[in-house]
Amino acid sequence: MNINTTQLAQSILLSSLILSASAFADTTTNQDVLGGTINGKLTFASDYVFRGESETMDGDVPVVQGTLGWGNDFGWYVGVFASNVKFADPNLEIVTAPYIGKAGKFGDSSISYDVMVFSYLYPGASYSNYTELWIKVGKQFGHATVQLEVTPTIDDWFGVDGWQGINYAVHPSYAFDNGVNVSASIGYQGLEGEGAEGWGHWNIIKKRLSRYPLQ
Predict the structure, then answer these.
(1) Which long-range contacts (C-beta less than 8 Å, at least 24 apart) are formed by 212-215?
(2) pTM of the model
């Protein structure tokens, strides 16, 4: 029986992160570490859609995702996200994404900001690695919040030589008194480079807020 060591390492990496995220998500109190709190999130889904595009060939495989993060009261945060993916390239099976950022408000105003460096790393397919700089500015209007996003790539988009990307998006949301939150996103992923072509994307999400992390 032949064992693909790269696939085995990828599976162990994803499983470790997901188990860690599950352990933290299964507690209702955050863990105090280095002046901040550690939190985790575990997600099961039929597809992984990123900016309107399926990351699993239109749901060809089910998705398991985990996020493990740390943040403090000053707005600094760091963490890692991982998910299985499926593309035409058989080497693209898992994405691991370390990130670091800072969120807060401009002085005493009601205008918020969130700046994050987010790297997409593909074990076994490092030629597709790339990094983005997420920049969001938002404002709350009562129960409603509107965020504006500009996210350029720092290096070649998806590892394609000479391709540069920048995502523009608007993210409105509304929190109802009964705990239901409705959020939406509409944007355009711009791409520049030989043969590159951008696309528009949108989504609408409805969820009920709960103090239980796994609900």
Answers:
(1) 212/28, 213/25, 213/26, 213/27, 213/28, 213/40, 213/41, 214/25, 214/26, 214/42
(2) 0.83
Q: Which domains does the chain possess? A: 5-208 (2.40.160)
Q: Tokens 């693209």 — which residue?
A: 92
pLDDT digits (tens, 9 = 90+) for 129-169: 999 999 999 999 999 999 999 999 999 999 999 999 999 99
115 with 101: CB under 8 angstroms?
yes
- Residue 67 structure tokens: 């996020």
Other CB atoms within 10 A of residue 36 CB:
18
Say if residues 52 and 200 touch (Cβ distance below 8 Å): yes
